[in-house]
Amino acid sequence: MYHTPLASSFLMERLVLWLGRSPTLGFAISRVAFSAAATWQINAMFGNETDFAQTAHLLQAGIWTWTAVSIAQNSLTPPLGLLLRPVSLIFDLIVFLTVIVLCEPLQIAALGCLFFVAWSASDRFGRSAIIVIGFCLIFAFMARGYYEVWTPAPRAPDIGRAIDNLTIVIGCLIAASMLSMSILEQRLISWTERLQGVGLSFQKSLAQFLVEQISHLMNSRYCAFVWEMMEDEVIHCDLIDGSGVRQVTLPQKQIDSLLGVQPREAPFLYSTQSPRMLLRGRIGILRNERAPEVSDAILDVFGAGQGASFFVQAGELRGRIFIGTSHGWSPALLLRCLRIQEGVDLFLERHFFFLAWRQRTFAEARQALSRDLHDSVLQTLAALRVRLVTAIHGLSEADVPDQLAELKSMEELVTSEQAHLRRLLSQRHGSPSGSAVDLIREAERCCRFIALQWAIECRLNPVDRPMIVSAETATEVEFLIREATANAVKHANARHITVSIAQADDEILIALKDNPGAQAQVRENYTGDFELQSQSIMKRLGKIGGTAYFHNLSMNSLISIRLPSSLPRSPI
Amino acid sequence: MMAQIAIVDDHPIFLDGMAQFLNSHGHDIIFCAKSVEEALDRMKSGEPDLLILDVSMKSGGGLAILSAIRNSGSTVPVIFMTVHIRPEQTLEAIKLGVDGVVLKDSDPNELLSCIQQVMNGNKSIAPFVMEQALVHSISAPASEANVLDVLTERELEIAGLIRAGLRNREIASRCGLTEGTVKVHLHSIFQKLSIKSRSELIIMMMSMDSDMPAVGMEH
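ok -> structure tokens follow
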């Protein structure tokens, strides 16, 4: 019981899809109805005249053959299908116009069928085809006065009713087709609007979200998105089919075939049974092109069947979407693909805009926070320094050399930290990114500061020549030396630290050795090398592509750090 | 020369420390204020020989106080003592007649010599601050707003339409071009501005309109 509404709803859904997306089904049913009406009409006209019996049979056979051929030619693939389609449409036009001129009882049914001819011609040749058909129709109506309409005997009432019924069927088909077209159009519009409303609010990856949405809209067998980011050499493929959404790894040959389609931006229809693809030229005329490698790649990756594909480009993302459909070689599908392509492009542009705006807002907030923090710390340090200078001034005439020395040492520490912060702020706000500094000079200054800060001996192994790096790299090195020293002092009670810096190839190597001094104790066991446990150092190195190890030596410890000379570009 | 000094700063530790420091060097602190309103209120009861103001405070900070007292006709010497002053603020302060600018992280003795200079009727602005202001005054007009000067008129028109949210097809019909030509112009705009997407272009143009610093767009 519960299945009945579901089944009817499913059936309605299918009917809307089949009638609305292209004129093929509506036209096929109308042809059959028209042929049946024509058969009865021929019987009515020639049934009582034995002389014309053979002619009547021939006419009936001709009409049904024409109907069968016209329906069957829809399943032909290019180039034959593409060549036969205009011929068939012209023949249809001639037949229906002739009926309008010569056979009054069938003229309404023929007019109905002309609607489908016009729809098909519009799909095939563009909207100007409708104007041509309109003119032909006017000429046909004008021609009716010049020919004697063939109405021999009065129609039998039951045949008249039957023809009227079939005419009504054709009329209903036209109405249903137009309604279905309107429903599908509305669906496409609301789908596009919903897509634009999504912004950044989806849980899955962008590509998977897209294939899901398109697959749902097109009711497709599969939908795949083969894409890349321009600066990234990796090609991705996200696929949705009966087994769900997943990422697929494609061999390079198939990637080249799937992404190397020319012309790149035109949507095209494909069939794995044909080595040709169907697309529109610059002026909108359908044409077919041989692309056997594309068909082969599609067959290998997505399986047999027909489908459509269109190009997607927004910002740095570019790729191609493949939709497995059960459509024939319907030009209407190409138009639909164009609409979807526009919607997807708009969605991606909006998505990337929101993303960039969000990143920018976060970056600004981070900068504002960082500026406030630095300002606050600088204010406090300035206050401390002023108080220290006041205290030093007050004690300068008293005989307290130890206290004075301690206060002066503290002032030096504060001054050094102020200078460090000022330099960081200047780098961030003032000096151009990538300005060069001498790393050795910066490291020496850093070692002096560390010695004051922790009241330890900290010195840099002398280096003969300057080591010029970017200011950002120097800041990273200083951070790493500070953190590593703090760890060594706090956790290993290091008192004498020697820092060595070297540059080899594109890497900077830093070694911090804890020299135990005169009371060195030989360790009993050599416990080997470990990756450094400091989260702050490892996190920082992880971002810039460096490594750090802790070596437990027999007499002392060694921390070795490696980082690239040129830091990776920040995304913001 | 000893002076009667008023200090205005919203950072209490610094305010106390500065008052102690100046006192210890023989200056007389006639009042310390922690806000713009308090400072202007205290100024009504009598002017000091010298005002030391912080720039970064609520209600306009030191610039608001300087502007108010200059508008009231006062010629009391003013020194800005601040952690950070933007070049445009320095230029504004010079226009309003500031006598000295000292950075808080400089040696406190620099403040003493600045006070001395100002009390002698001279100007004393920290070289670093002056340098930044000079660089800004030379390069500012050619900064963000003129980034678009590299674009041709047609490219500017297209960039404006992209900012308005139009698609290539709509731009093409509005400008009487083909969609392909619009794409070529767009490519040229991206290359000239060193950007990679319409989003970046829109954000760049919006940040120029709203006078916000363009983060991540190094031009």
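Residues 204-353 of chain A form a domain with the Beta-Lactamase fold (CATH 3.30.450.40).
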